[in-house]
Amino acid sequence: MARTARVRLKVKAFLKRNPDSNTRQVYDHINSALRQGTTMNQLTNILSKDPDITRTGSQRVSSVITGRYSLGQWRLREE
After folding, report:
1. Starting at the edge strand that comes first in sequence, how are the strands of the sheet with 21-22 ordered?
2. CB within 8 A of 72, min separation 6: which ones?
C-alpha cells in the first residue's frame, strides 16, 4: 500500500460529500479524521497529482498574521 493511500481515500471521500472545498477545509478534515493526519505538503501533492481530483479555481483568504493569500478549490473529476 502506498504511503499516502489512506489519506488519498479520505480526501476522495470528503470531496465526494463536499465538492468545491478549498485546501484548508480538506486539510482540517483529514487531520481531525485520521490519527496521524497529514502535512500541507503531502496534501497539496495528493490534490494536484491525483488524476481523479481537479482544481476548479482559487479562493482569496485573509489572515491577521500573513495577510491575504490564495487557496485552491478542489472537486472530484466527473466520470
Report:
1. 21-22, 67-76, 53-63
2. 22, 23, 44, 47, 55, 57, 58, 59
Q: What's the rounded Cα separation, in Å, for the pair 31 and 33?
A: 6
Cell triple for residue 50?
491525483
- Contact (Cβ atoms closer than 8 angstroms) between residue 20 and residue 75: yes
pLDDT value at 3 more than 90: no
User: How many residues in the chain?
Assistant: 79
Please give the pLDDT value at position 1.
63
Q: What is the pLDDT of residue 73?
A: 95
Cβ-based burial of 66 (10 A; exposed 0-12, middle 13-18, buried ≥19): exposed
- Quick: pLDDT tens for 48-79: 999 999 999 998 888 888 889 899 999 999 86
Query: What's the gap between Cα 78 and its chain centre?
Result: 17
